[in-house]
Write a structure and sequence with these properties.
It comes from Mastacembelus armatus (zig-zag eel). Belongs to the myelin P0 protein family. This is Ig-like domain-containing protein. It is found in: Membrane. By secondary structure, the chain is of the alpha+beta class. The protein has two domains: about 35-155, Immunoglobulins (Immunoglobulin-like, Sandwich), CATH 2.60.40; about 155-200. Helix content is about 35%, strand content about 25%. It has two helices and eleven strands. The strands form three sheets. Strands 2-11-10-5-6-7 form a six-stranded mixed sheet, with no helix packed on it. Strands 3-9-8 form a three-stranded antiparallel sheet, with no helix packed on it. A hairpin with a 6-residue loop joins strand 5 (about 70-75) and strand 6. The chain is elongated, with a radius of gyration of 35 Å. The termini are far apart.
Length: about 210
């Protein structure tokens, strides 16, 4: 005796397949939800300190004991990448290489900041700096890159911003002094007016014994 199983409608099969694909995509999106933000291009004057800014956003709650931050360097000349910095619970600066004693932690994990500072940059530091952050199980996603250009002098735009900043500060101080001086003058005028108003009735008074 042959028992026939009921046929499954093609629409049901397609619907089940579509639901399975959507579930898989949702799981992938949930795991790979970390986003890293970097400025892209930066300039630094030779011999000065530069802050490489890297911030991130994770779709999972931050776990300070599990989050890892890795910085690496890709030079302009064809060669292998070099480790710049590592962070997990505490900073781990490099013990060897061109960045030894040159890198310091400048971030705040709970503030979603994975920035570092490179001290006394040199022309050999020209290249691409790669920032990677992992917050398990959120370990996938794009890395952040910063293309650093070490120059001999500050660019015109930087000088302009510096001039505007200094000029704005001086202008603010001048305006504040003008306001203070004006307030003092107004106060003195008001005091003099009050004294005049008090003195006038005294002059108008007459001695009652004099006719």
């Amino acid at each position: 005796m042959i028992i026939r199983q009921p046929a499954v409608h093609p629409m049901c099969v397609n619907g089940l397949y579509f639901f399975t694909v959507l579930s898989g995509l949702a799981g992938m999106l949930q795991v790979s939800g970390i986003h890293i933000y970097t400025p892209g291009d930066m300039e630094a004057v030779n011999g000065t300190d530069v802050r490489l800014k890297c911030t991130f956003h994770s779709s999972f709650p931050l776990n300070p004991s599990a989050i890892t931050v890795s910085w690496s360097f890709r030079p302009l000349t064809p060669s292998r990448e070099e480790t710049v910095f590592h962070y997990q619970v505490k900073p781990y600066p490099p013990l060897e290489g061109i960045f030894r004693n040159r890198v310091a932690w400048a971030g705040d994990i709970m503030g979603r900041d994975a920035s570092i500072i490179i001290r006394q940059v040199k022309f050999s530091y020209n290249g691409t700096y790669i920032c990677q952050v992992k917050n398990p199980p959120d370990v996938h996603g794009m890395v952040g890159e910063i293309r650093l250009h070490v120059v001999t002098t500050a660019s015109f735009s930087e000088l302009l911003l510096l001039a505007l900043g200094v000029g704005g500060g001086i202008a603010a101080v001048v305006i504040l002094l003008i306001i203070i001086v004006s307030c003092r003058r107004c106060r003195r005028r008001r005091q003099r007016q009050l004294e005049v108003n008090e003195e006038a009735p005294r002059k108008q008074r007459k001695d009652p014994t004099v006719w």
